[in-house]
Every structure is written in C-alpha cells, then in structure tokens.
Amino acid sequence: MWTDQEQAVHLFEQLLNESAEIAGAEFKSFTGLPFVYVYPSGNTAREGIEDRLKWCAAKAMKGKRLSLAMNYVRRTQTFYVYRVRFLVPQRKMFCCGNFCDDCIRFTNP
Which pLDDT tens digit goes with each residue over 13-54? Predict the structure, then answer.
C-alpha cells in the first residue's frame, strides 16, 4: 500500500516521461533530497519546462492533501536540474487553547 506522497511521485514521473515538451527525465536523490534532471525536447525554453513540471505535479497531487516545493538548481547544455518535493501537511497533535480553526478538538479520530 502506497502513501499519497509515494503515489504522487510515481504519477509525476509517469506524466513527465510521457510529456511532449520533455525528451526525458531522470530522478536522483542526494542526501535525502529528490532532484529531477529534465532533458528538453527541441528548443523548449525554461518557462515551458517549469510550466510542464507544475502541470504534471498538479495532476499528480489532485485529490490529495499535498503541496509542491519546486526550486530551480542549475542548467547545463543538455539538461535542467530542479529540486521537486511533495510536502505532507503537518497536523496539530494537541490543543493549544487559542481557538484555532484547525484545532484537534474539531476532528474525528
């Protein structure tokens, strides 16, 4: 059984590799941080690559409580490097007494 985060990463990888703007995508992890090496097809600009990354991430996160953290790292002559992470929201574990909207008292166990 996969978590929502694992499902989103898997679907994100599939969508990127099927994309017309991207010739290929490699996923590597260094010191626990995930990096995506994007090989553009043709003369695709950086903005087009970023739009496609965001579109694929949005499709992968649909129906899940995840958020995207994407940072541009560097570019070489053949590929772009991005750090892409799907973040899981933190939940409160106790009531602080400040009548917060997301108070643990208002959720069902």
Answer: 999 999 888 888 999 999 888 999 999 988 888 899 999 999
Element (H, E) at 17: helix 4-18
What the chain holds in terms of domains, given with CATH numbers, is 4-87 (3.30.70)
Distance CA 77, CA 63 (A): 37
Look up tokens 């260094």; give the residue. Answer: 30
Write the DSSP symbol of residue 94: S
Which residues are CB-neighbours of 105 under 8 A, at least 6 positions away? 95
The SS3 of residue 14 is: helix
Measure the CA–CA gap between 56 and 17, rounded to whole angstroms: 10
- Residue pair 85/34 in contact (Cβ under 8 Å)? The answer is yes
Handedness of CA 81, 86, 6, 9 (dihedral sign): negative
